[in-house]
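Budget justification aside, the reviewers requested a transparent look at the raw inputs and outputs of the sequence design task funded under Objective 1. We therefore reproduce one unedited record. The lines immediately below are the structure tokens for a 361-residue chain.
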């Protein structure tokens, strides 16, 4: 029995059990409603904005032939159980960050973000123009899934801490919320890593269950109210220099759509992705200014901490290179990053340096 047949006929643990009451897509008078499960509560800035905009676009562009019943984290399945529910065919589509599912395959990290990896534009270049989408399709197909990129948090800050980090030794024993490969890196540096869903971070930080956390960026972090708990905010992080989100269909549901509906979904998610990227980048500066007016201090990690992050990141990447699929994705990812970076450095980078110098004069 192949992987896809197995997934279609097997229970997927607690997630499938929790989702077993879900109905098949509702179809009436040519209209169809798909069940979408997500990894955050409704209304979460940037993250849920991307999901809502995509389904609004698809519904409008199909004139209501396709619509969605969006079920937020915990309302049907848990935040980290959406992958299993859709893979097993118990829900139709999920919206989430792919690095939540490294237990399924470590290669999923690249489709969200990896430490010292691609910036927002570099990631879009790879995904749309240098084979990233095709590799994502190949990996996801093993799990009965079809992904579309929709959502981009842009560079994520180092996070909120209950104490200042003056050296790498200060990380020892720290209880810190960070998912993905970034969390694996911190674990190598002595951090007690907590992989807490977004909807639970504030309470964990406020109660003292954790000593710090990273989320998305000033705009989204302000909305969650982290500034009410601590004013120590590291505004540049190593872990997610540009983090993509995805809308992922059960592949049988995807293949049941008409070619026109599939094209609309692709175009709508690309449009929503562009809007969401602009939202992230446009709002963070103003949000940081508001946070600073409330006493938040923007800090940067010292060089020795960055060096420790770099060494541990290389170790984490290397430990999965024995997996052929992981190695294939990594080779494509870093080749595209080098290509994009080389141009940005001599093009945009030099222009920005000169612009800042001239404007300062």
């Amino acid at each position: 029995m192949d992987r896809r047949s197995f997934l279609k006929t097997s229970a997927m643990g607690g997630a499938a059990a929790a989702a077993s009451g879900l109905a098949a897509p509702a179809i009436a008078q040519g209209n169809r409603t798909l069940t979408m499960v997500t990894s955050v509560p409704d209304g979460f800035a940037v993250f849920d904005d991307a999901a809502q905009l995509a389904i609004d676009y698809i519904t409008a562009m199909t004139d209501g032939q396709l619509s969605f019943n969006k079920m937020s984290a915990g309302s049907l399945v848990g935040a980290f159980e959406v992958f299993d529910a859709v893979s097993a065919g118990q829900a139709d589509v999920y919206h989430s960050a792919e690095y939540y599912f490294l237990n399924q395959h470590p290669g999923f990290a690249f489709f969200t973000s990896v430490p010292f990896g691609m910036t927002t534009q570099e990631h879009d270049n790879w995904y749309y123009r240098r084979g990233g989408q095709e590799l994502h399709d190949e990996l996801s197909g093993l799990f009965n899934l079809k992904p579309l990129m929709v959502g981009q948090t842009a560079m994520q800050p180092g996070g909120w801490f209950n104490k200042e980090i003056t050296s790498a030794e200060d990380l020892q024993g720290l209880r810190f919320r960070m998912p993905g490969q970034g969390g694996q890196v911190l674990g190598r540096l002595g951090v007690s890593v907590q992989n807490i869903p977004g909807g639970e971070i504030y309470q964990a930080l406020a109660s003292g269950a954790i000593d710090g956390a990273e989320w998305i960026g000033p705009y989204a972090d302000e909305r969650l109210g982290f500034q009410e708990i601590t004013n120590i905010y590291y505004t540049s992080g190593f872990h997610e220099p540009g983090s993509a989100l995805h809308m992922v269909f059960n592949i049988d549901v995807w293949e049941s759509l008409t070619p026109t509906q599939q094209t609309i979904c692709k175009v709508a998610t690309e449009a929503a992705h562009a809007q969401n990227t602009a939202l992230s980048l446009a709002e963070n500066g103003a949000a940081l200014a508001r946070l600073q007016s409330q006493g938040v201090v923007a800090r940067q990690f010292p060089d020795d901490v960055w060096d420790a992050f770099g060494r541990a990141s290389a170790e984490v990447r290397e430990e999965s290179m024995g997996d052929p699929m992981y190695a294939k994705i990594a080779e494509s990812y870093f080749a595209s990053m080098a290509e994009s970076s080389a141009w940005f450095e001599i093009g945009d980078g030099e222009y920005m340096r000169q612009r800042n110098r001239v404007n300062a004069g």
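The chain has 13 helices and twelve strands. Residues 3-151+241-282 form a domain with the D-Maltodextrin-Binding Protein; domain 2 fold (CATH 3.40.190.170). Computational costs for records of this kind are itemized in the attached budget.
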